[in-house]
Amino acid sequence: MPEPVISIRDLRKTYHLGDETVHALDGVNLDVMPGEYVAIMGSSGSGKSTLLNLLGCLDRPTSGVYLLGKDDVAALDDDTLSQVRGARLGFIFQSYNLIPQLTVLENIEVPLFYQGRDSPEALARCKELACLVGLDGRLGHRPKQLSGGQQQRVAIARALVNDPLMILADEPTGNLDSSTEEDVLALIDQLHDQGRTIVMVTHDDHVASRADRIIHMKDGRIHREQMNDKKVASQH
Questions:
Q1: pLDDT at 5 over 90
Q2: Residue 146 domain boundaries
Q3: In the chain, how many domains are there?
């Protein structure tokens, strides 16, 4: 039996705003297995973005256990946490988060640069990923010369460049028109078909319908979970 990619037990995140205490996460338990595609849904304030930030090692829990592979994230110091984040996680954001002064190829290479892995072999990998996402003819272009869909493709290639344990996507099609959304979702489907583990936050039922499992959050807790029976049926 494979080990979970992530294993969370009684995860809590509390914020203090003046005299008010906000329980953004209030005892979350969750396992995600290798190769699984999980969608996290919920209204604004449900805790879904807080959970994604904790999964991505962008923030620390107030209490509880978060195992990323075999690493207890809460026990890591800041430098180690940063190394783990850079080496084992890939991020896709709604706003793309590309560096405007850099070319397509340079933006894809950014995570490797921060890890000191910007070698000729790494550059070749960046070019391969640009081809994978359909941007091999745009390597020298800068973000402002690209459409929204093309910028998100750069972000997907960048998320893959460190061969991550898991891809975390935060409303990855939120800024795209419906036609471009389908193209980007098909690309994410392709990554999942290749065995990638994907955790995606979305408010959109259509986007969530691509996942194997859908988690609904409410008031900082997992309100309910459902297996995507249509998706499972299509795989058999």
A1: yes
A2: 6-234
A3: 1
